[in-house]
Amino acid sequence: MKKRMGPYLVTAPALVFLALMALYPLIFLLKISFQDYSPINFENPYVGFDNYATLLADSSFWNSIKVTAIFVVSAVSIELVLGLALALILNQKIKAGKMFQTLIMLPIFMAPTVVGLMFRFMMNEQYGVINYFAEVLGFDRTAWLSDPTLALPALIITDIWQWTPFMIIILLAGLQGISDEPLEAAQIDGATKWQALRYVTIPMLSQVIIIAVLLRTIDAFRLYDSIFMMTQGGPVNVTSTLSWIVFDKGFRFLDFGYGAAIAVVMLIIVLILLTLFLKRFSLFEESGEK
Asked: Which among 151, 67, 168 is positioned nearest to 116, based on CA atoms?
């Protein structure tokens, strides 16, 4: 009995701590999403599904879904392509490859708020270094963060700069775990490098790619720091993502119940994406076993 219960007793304090830190906020979030909750309102009456009904009729909410989808799809797709290309180059054991790997990891170690502030200064229309070099090359200065057509691409560029190295780390580890025998067999059969990449390397790397895309997608949904430092959700809400609108409704307008309802919907969307990714992952595993 002691041997069976020993591991549970040892891990019980940590499990209780995790439950309190994870389950209680989730339950509280669900609770206040059905309330007219505000820190300055002592009654906080239950309103049922009124917050969710308001949410469905709120144009700013639907705009935030569109902005989030554009941001996540664009940023993660480009990061995947760049990450795979650079991982393939680094996997060739080029000279100074280790030093390049170390340097390319530096953006990950920087706080997102620092990165956002840095790009805010770099993209400044008057004294930003990007506009300085653009002017040197003969181009006009660009209002990156105040132009409605460029603000979201500016955020995407910032995210790509910081998180492409994350893709490189995972994909490079996956490439280094692939055996040389299938590639050698493909070369013997006369396959070109592109054919070997398309029909051998990428299929063998598919599970790693799914994991990398899954992790980055979930993280991209939570983007807030860069928006806060660079655009504040503007101009005219073109960078107002789901995470930003949760902050905007909940903490700026002190409508915690409505902000909680948006957060619950955001959680449901992430869970649906997670389920689809895991289903896809299981299909790859089944095909691999066959």
From this structure: 151
Distance CA 203, CA 285 (A): 11
Per-residue pLDDT of the chain (290 residues), as tens digits, is 666 777 778 888 888 888 888 888 889 899 999 988 877 777 778 888 999 999 889 999 999 999 999 999 999 999 999 999 999 888 887 666 677 777 888 898 898 899 999 999 999 988 889 999 988 888 888 889 999 999 999 999 999 999 999 999 999 989 888 877 877 787 777 777 788 888 888 888 888 888 899 889 989 988 899 999 999 988 889 999 999 999 988 888 888 999 999 999 999 998 888 888 777 766 555 555 54
Residues making up the chain, counted from first to last: 290
CA–CA separation, 110 and 225 (whole Å): 12
Q: What is the 3-state secondary structure (H, E, C) of 165-220?
A: HHHHHHHHHHHHCCCHHHHHHHHHCCCCHHHHHHHHHHHHHHHHHHHHHHHHHHHH
Other beta carbons within 10 angstroms of residue 162's beta carbon come to 24
What the chain holds in terms of domains, given with CATH numbers, is 58-289 (1.10.3720.10)
